[in-house]
Amino acid sequence: MSLYPMHSLISSASAILSRKFSVKQIICVVLMEDRPSDYFKPGDIFMCKWLAFIVSSLLLATSGMASDLLREQQIAQEISENLVVGKPITLKAGEQDFLAIHGESASKQIKGAAILLHGRGANPAWSVVVHPLRMGLADHGWETLSLQMPLAPLGAANWAYEALIPDAAPRILAAIEFLKQRKIEKIVIIGHSLGSRMGLEAIAAGVPEEVVAFVAVGTPTDKEDSDTGVFGALKKIKLPVLDIYGSRDLPSVLAGSKARKMAALQAENSGYRQAEVIGADHFFRGMEESLLARIRSWIGGQAARSALVVEESPAADKPVQ
């Protein structure tokens, strides 16, 4: 998502501020006050929201739209002090350090490694989706590497996170390189929610041959152009993709399911599979074992299939039920 040009933002801000809002009104704007009616007349509330957008855009533009590193550092410290299973490690994407949690497999026979990408505003030890997969896959022959994805400041709007999507690719590549150094030959990437979109766009730009599959869990596609974002990425990806979501998922996930399938069809991706899990919500609450079983079965098949020299026809795959 492209932001408004800097000069347009400044001009809009100047025009609004020329109305001589009070100090309390400006504070309301800067703090993104949810109930501005205490300080504004009804006709001015729209101006409050619009100026809040402008202020946030200016802050992101002047900061280079980088992840909130202080917030990341606080999360890393808390996880390092309290993590019970797995080892916190520091990876480097360009000049930026970021946290990852490495988990070795409990099995002597290693099938490969899974890179986990959490959703918006979460962390690599997140109790929802990420933790069950991190633990469960390690019990069935997979090393895991859960990444801290880029973060916007607390309370940031959706578009602020969309601006951070390009920052995810260097972290994913750093994770792949770490696993390659461990002599892992088969890598799958699993993303949830915003992490799914970040992963899809990174893969569409190109990944090393060690990556054999991608799992997209609860992928939102709200108000996207058909040639950008998730849809644009799926139109380029040839890698096997499991697009899995719940029947009670977010509206932005459910509404885009047909379009995601059509985008993969347009890419002639015979390895694309879509699965709706009846009864599951966006976070698979109470259905963690079902999610783990479906993902584990599918990635196991992809890891085994990637070793074959002779290509199988699409009909040889059984659709995920």
Explain the overall architecture:
It is a single chain. β6 (211-217), α9 (229-234) and β7 form a beta-alpha-beta unit. It is globular, with a radius of gyration of 21 Å. It has 321 residues and is α/β, with parallel strands linked by helices. It has 2 domains: 6-62, no CATH class; 69-316, Alpha/Beta hydrolase fold, catalytic domain (Rossmann fold). 40% of the residues lie in helices and 18% in strands. The two termini are 34 Å apart. The model is unreliable at 1-21, 23-36, 56-64 and 308-319 (pLDDT under 50). It has helices at 6-17, 23-30, 45-62, 69-82, 130-138, 158-162, 168-181, 194-204, 229-234, 251-254, 257-266, 288-305; strands at residues 87-93, 96-103, 112-117, 142-147, 187-192, 211-217, 241-248, 272-281. An 8-stranded mixed sheet has the order 1-2-4-3-5-6-7-8, with helices on both faces. The chain has 12 helices and 8 strands. 38% of the residues are buried.
